[in-house]
């Protein structure tokens, strides 16, 4: 018991929680945006992988770190446009299209990486984002090091949660996004084109997915390898259900999963004689349990995964 309390009281644990949660926050916000307009985007895993690669490649080629973030966002938006064009105007299967984009983006990411680095035995590294302490606030005991000594993309992710919540629930644009996911015909009756709303929102959400991938290579690590996303995209899709399609709850869900992940890593070193595979399972088992509990209260957007055709009801 004392070991568990020591781990929970560790500043290092909670610093790691916020760091691990950052790509989940960004990815979950991206999925949330897509689903709010009625489109399931299963391309997130591939978009994150491509964002991770293109962000790293931009910096490796001489660009600065923020140029890498911007490049990842632009590529994510491009894949989002591809997904949107196939699923919104053409009405193709969102499941098949999303999985196809995941396979395509992941494969292209690895192909471009091998073209850029054909002979290296180990992935070349770049100089990543460094922790950015906030003056005065970082000196607050316990909370200062946890909240105010993170990297700039982590601060960006936290700010985006607040911005997205404000846009969705306090602006006409947010109302149009939410209503497009509930009743696109009602949106059309108000003189707004639901197809354009869906396409633009999917591109914005996919851009966030690309940034989530870039965080892995430009802040969490300093190099790219093809399997580095490790299922985070699928976790983000589950977290949207846990969050009940709300940005604030999405932050909570991402932090909760990150806590389970960081906690099991420290348990592996503190507890002897237990197979490490059990610790690796822990965050996923607890997350499934939390998802089952929250899913009973979930209210799915009414037009989710339903193709929209102008003039039909």
> Uncertain segments of ≥5 residues (pLDDT<50)?
none
Oligomeric state: single chain
Secondary-structure-derived class: mainly alpha
Termini distance? 60 Å
The arrangement of helices and strands along the chain is HHHHHHHHHHHHH
CATH top level? Mainly Alpha
Number of helices: 13
Which fold name corresponds to the CATH topology?
Answer: ABC transporter involved in vitamin B12 uptake, BtuC
Q: What count of domains describes the coordinates?
A: 1
Task: Report on the architecture of this protein.
The chain is an all-alpha fold and 313 residues long. It has one domain: ABC transporter involved in vitamin B12 uptake, BtuC (Orthogonal Bundle), CATH 1.10.3470. 70% of the residues lie in helices and 0% in strands. It has 13 helices and no strands. The protein has helices at 2-8, 11-36, 44-60, 65-87, 94-116, 143-147, 152-170, 172-182, 184-189, 194-220, 232-242, 247-270, 276-295. Helix 3 packs across helix 11 (232-242) and helix 4 (65-87) runs antiparallel to helix 5 (94-116). The model has no long low-confidence stretch (mean pLDDT 89).
């Amino acid at each position: 018991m004392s070991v568990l309390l020591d781990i929970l009281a560790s500043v290092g644990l909670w610093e790691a929680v916020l760091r691990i949660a950052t790509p989940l926050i960004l990815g979950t916000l991206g999925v949330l945006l897509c689903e709010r307009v009625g489109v399931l985007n299963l391309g997130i895993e591939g978009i994150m992988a491509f964002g991770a690669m293109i962000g790293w490649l931009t910096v490796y080629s001489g660009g600065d770190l923020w140029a890498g973030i911007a490049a990842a966002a632009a590529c994510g938006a491009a894949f989002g446009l591809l997904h949107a064009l196939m699923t919104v105007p053409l009405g193709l299967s969102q499941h098949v299209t999303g999985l196809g984009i995941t396979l395509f983006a992941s494969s292209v990411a690895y192909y471009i990486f091998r073209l850029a680095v054909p002979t290296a035995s180990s992935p070349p590294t770049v100089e990543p984002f460094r922790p950015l302490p906030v003056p005065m606030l970082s000196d607050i005991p316990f909370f200062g090091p946890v909240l105010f000594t993170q990297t700039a993309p982590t601060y960006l992710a936290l700010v985006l949660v607040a911005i997205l919540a404000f846009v969705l629930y306090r602006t006409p644009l947010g109302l149009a996004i939410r209503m497009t996911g509930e009743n696109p015909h009602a949106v059309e009756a108000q003189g707004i084109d639901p197809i354009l709303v869906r396409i633009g929102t999917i591109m914005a959400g996919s851009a966030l997915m690309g940034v989530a991938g870039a965080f892995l290579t430009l802040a969490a690590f300093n190099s790219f390898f093809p399997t580095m996303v490790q299922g985070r995209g699928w976790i983000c899709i589950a977290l949207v259900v846990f969050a009940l399609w709300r940005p604030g709850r999405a932050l909570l869900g991402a932090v909760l999963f990150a806590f389970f992940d960081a906690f099991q890593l420290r348990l592996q070193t503190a507890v002897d004689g237990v197979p490490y595979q059990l610790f690796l399972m822990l965050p996923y088992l607890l997350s499934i349990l939390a998802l089952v509990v929250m899913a009973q209260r979930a209210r799915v957007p009414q037009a989710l995964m339903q193709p929209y055709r102008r003039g039909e009801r």
